Amino acid sequence: MTDVISHKRFQDEEAAYEWVEAHLWPHGPECPRCHGRERVTKLQGKSTRIGTYKCKDCRKPFTVKIGTIFEDSHIPMRMWLQAIALICASKKGISSNQLHRMLGITLKSAWFMSHRIREAMRAGDLSPMGGGGGVVEIDETMQGRRAGVPKRKDREHGIRAAGLGAYGNIVLALVERGGSVRSFHVDSTSIADLMPTIRANLSREAHVMTDAASWYKFMNRQGAFLAHDRVDHSKDEYARIEPGKPLITTNTVEGYFSLFKRGMRGTYQHCAEKHLHRYLAEFDFRYNARVALGVDDEQRAAKLLVGAKGKRLTYRTTDRARPEAPRAT
Predict the structure, then answer these.
(1) How do residues 270-309 score in pLDDT, each as one tens digit?
(2) Crossing angle, helix 77-89 and helix 297-307, to 10 degrees?
(3) CATH hierarchy code of domain 135-288
(4) Which end of the chain is more exposed for a tag (fewer CB within 10 A), N or C?
């Protein structure tokens, strides 16, 4: 049995380019400027960079890196593929320091590479969850501390005075039982901040399950969803069986948060608020392409590679504020 890292694409630069081209150009080389495929020639000169093509229509050279997370990177493609394989296969993530040591690149390059890979993990699917009466579990958690707020010794007072969102970063997660997850960084746990995102991502046929938090109490008052059931953790209730209903519990979404927390506290440890949405995209991606859904490590890496197209990320734009969570129109 050959170890995965010995695959040719991880050791040979030309093989790495061929593997990327096979996934990003399934119908053959395509010019990123004029999108032509008919009059494209691969350049074979001794001084030509690996993977360089020329379009005879617009007369410009190009490689598969243009318009992707790889553009303008001086790191060899084989190292990019090694980093992608490591991040995709690590259930709780892999730190920039670890990539820096394993790949022999600078810490700054490893950090920027990690964020580019997370950008490729960001999904664009906004189709409603819970269609056909599917069960969707909803919960929220607090991750990290917002800049400028009191430290741990003053936390209880701060939470009592201004609510969870005033102290930490609030993460809202929607998990379709047996399916996918979507998580969002929201401003607070108020119904005004939660409901627009929930309504925008759930089907009216969804069977919603939450805990007994007050902000969920009247979320289905106008019949926005098929049904809404709650479990009361304050009474040590974590699952309940009722005739004619699926198991009433939020254990699935709490299991996702358990994995997310172990990764954020044990692997990454420090995460600025402006970068939280990319870490959420990373954990969502791995959860939605997990072995239980029939996706192995190589297929997960290939799926990420397809998502790298059109996800240009520069060092300057890495520090931009988080995007707005989807809201119902």
Answers:
(1) 888 889 999 999 999 999 999 999 999 999 999 999 999 8
(2) 120
(3) 3.30.420.10
(4) N
